[in-house]
Prior knowledge:
This protein is 3% helix and 46% strand. The strands form 7 sheets. A 9-stranded antiparallel β-sheet has the order 10-11-12-13-27-23-22-17-20, with no helix packed on it. By secondary structure, it is mostly beta strands. The relative contact order is 0.18. The protein has helices at 193-196, 277-280, and strands at residues 7-12, 15-20, 26-31, 34-35, 52-54, 60-62, 65-68, 71-74, 84-86, 96-101, 104-111, 121-130, 133-142, 148-150, 153-155, 157-158, 169-171, 174-180, 187-192, 204-205, 212-218, 225-231, 237-243, 248-252, 266-271, 285-287, 292-302.
Amino acid sequence: MIPTGTQIVLHGHGLSAIVTEVGATLRELSWQGRPLVAGFGRHDLPHAYQGAVLAPWPNRLAGGRYRWGEDLYQLPLTEPERLNALHGLVCFAPWQVVDHDAASVTLTHRLWPQRGYPFLLDLQARYELADPGLTFTLTAVNAGDAPAPYGASFHPYLIAGGGRVDDWTVQVPAASYLTVDPDRLLPVGTAPVGPAGYDFRSPTSLRGIEVDHAFTDLTFDDAGTVALRLVGPGGRGVGLRWDSGAPWVQLCIPDENNPTMTRQALAVEPMTCPPDAFNSGVDLVILPPGGEHTFRLTIGPIDPALTTASSTS
């Protein structure tokens, strides 16, 4: 038995990827045989949400409870140790392949109304290999007759060539981060990155740094995109670029609570809204009936041998 269903294999432009039927999850991604993400085995489950599609909310929802209009809704607590609802409703749902060729696949999922989220959404996830890397596009359409709260993210664990996290540098143009309470990791407020030691606006060693926070006040370029660079020994690494539809990004270095991945990867999760946005309303997307939301990102290799055109740098 393969617990994540059919495995869709993609090849092209020096890249190889495997996407799963369950969750429309990115299980593997490599470039010329070098892994760019930490995935999971064919017969395993993504125990740490490796490569997961997160919708209709990313990150944590306090108590799984929120008010929408005059009604109070309760969702299952999928992070029971912290009493939170975590990472949406589609990570372990079946998706349908609607288009597939050697270098791309498109999957869809209809999220039916349920007790804690009584809204009807049509979701589409597309993976496409090209010269810059793997481009992931997530589109949501409100197929119901009432406005729906919405947020989304994607959850890859990036690997920068050889070594471990402590051998790598990271660069991402974020000026603020979200402080959280230590027990439930729920938002407290935003703060400048400098005093906390989280200023990654220039290449910064990750040696000894512990982080599991959302970052914002991102600097987007003239094309409306922002880039993160994770570079290891010899200048090889991985880049992730995303558009302004995701003004937040969660960075997390797995610790001893995740022993199979402890300090071996950096989770980088571009988010359309911060944690607990269903309650705070911060950057929450409100989809009217028939309304559509799309965000896009690209993961690709960084290598001294690459030309600018074939790198996400």
